[in-house]
Amino acid sequence: MHRFFIPRPYAETMEIDGVDARHIYTVLKMKPGEKVQIVSDDGVTALAEIAETAPGRTVVRCLEVIAESHEPAVKITLAQGLVKGEKMDFIIQKAVELGVSRIVPLAMEHSVVRYDGVKAAKKCERWQKIAESAAKQSKRDIIPAVAEVTTITKLMESCECATKIIAYECEDKQGLKEALRANKEAESILVIIGPEGGISEAELNAARTGGAVPVSLGRRILRAETAGLTALAAILYEFDELGG
Q: Is 14's pLDDT higher than 90?
């Protein structure tokens, strides 16, 4: 069943407009009487029936509130070092499918790509649309926010996650599992992943100063587009959010 996010508080009758309304009318060719799921901006998910449809406007009548949540109990922020090409698109799409709560693109010393203010803003707009599409496909109850491109120093100054970890390929004392089991009651976790060129010593020190603990993701070196998704899956499994 198709799911649509409506940027308004829940009401018995709601209106879907813009791109989603055009998609319903011209692509899906849905008719009055057909059922959809809607998620309002105050977090209510409901089963709804289409009452009216037009190219730029679809009116739905809510039938029942869906109480079941699709969101993990632990809120995960993925801070991902910028990677080249379409790899960032892939990371964001799959991270949202897995259950990430927020994504922070990081401009890092060893990043291959560099974005100025205008290009960074356009990229973030694109990434937010990818996150929205993935949230709809995977039946999320929220659209995870993609933050503005920032640095690791600024991230550590503003991040309020209870537990912070940074995946570091040279770490040989503590693995991800050990770090997670030491923070089993954490309600929010920050995961920092470097770009293709890895994490610099200065960035590692900045992360440590901000409270992040370096961890290993195993004995094999993972690509930048693999590491974050591996860490997310491991965290969700450890917190009984994958088939638990």
A: yes
